Amino acid sequence: MELRGETVVLAPVAEAHVPELRRIVSTVEVRERWGSVDGSPTWPFDEPGVVCFAVLEDGVVRGLVQYGEEADPMYRHASVDVFLDPVAHGRGLGMDTVRTMARHLVHDRGHHRLVIDPAADNAAAIRCYKAVGFREVGIMRRYERDTEGGGWHDGLLMDLLAEDLT
Q1: 75: which residues sit within 8 A by CB, 6+ positions away?
Q2: What are the b/e assignments for 61-72, b being 16+ CB within 10 Å?
Q3: With DSSP H G I counted as helix, E B as strand and the rest as coil, what are the percentages for the chain, rounded to 5?
């Protein structure tokens, strides 16, 4: 099922999207946040339980957005992750992508709470997520391995309740 935003269309990732997604994830800006996928010949189909969509603008692949779901009824929620081609940054595509995915997860999948966890120093991503309605929960110290594998960096836990979705 395709999801339509104001500008973007989110389409389930197909084999035809993979070469462009691999090019985008290999750009310096994306790779420094996501790390390398070179060691995974089946990426982005290699994580069971994660649902991946290609972000399309006028039919052109601009990035990837994915979600995972916690099914335990006591803690049911969804998590979101996204990257966009650096040539598409600063044009509102990230906000449209995250908002479109959030609406799907709230309205179609029935989630009352969503989480996202950017690196604490990723100011542009944090601004984008706040514009959609995500709020800062707190810093997760030494949360994520640096992409070079030499250390750790802090992450920012953010969440969005269904009623906060803009």
Answers
A1: none
A2: bbbbbbbeeeee
A3: 30, 35, 35
What's residue 107's pLDDT?
Answer: 97
SS3 75: coil
- What is residue 146's predicted lDDT score, i.e. its pLDDT? 85
The span from the CA of 43 to the CA of 105, in Å, is: 23
Amino acid at position 138, single letter:
G
Contact 146, 153 (CB under 8 A): yes
Residue 147 to residues 42, 75, 150, Cα–Cα distance (Å)? 20, 30, 8
pLDDT at 148: 76
State the sign of the Cα–Cα–Cα–Cα dihedral 84, 90, 92, 98: positive
**CA-wise closest residue to 11 among 63, 64, 53:** 53
pTM: 0.95
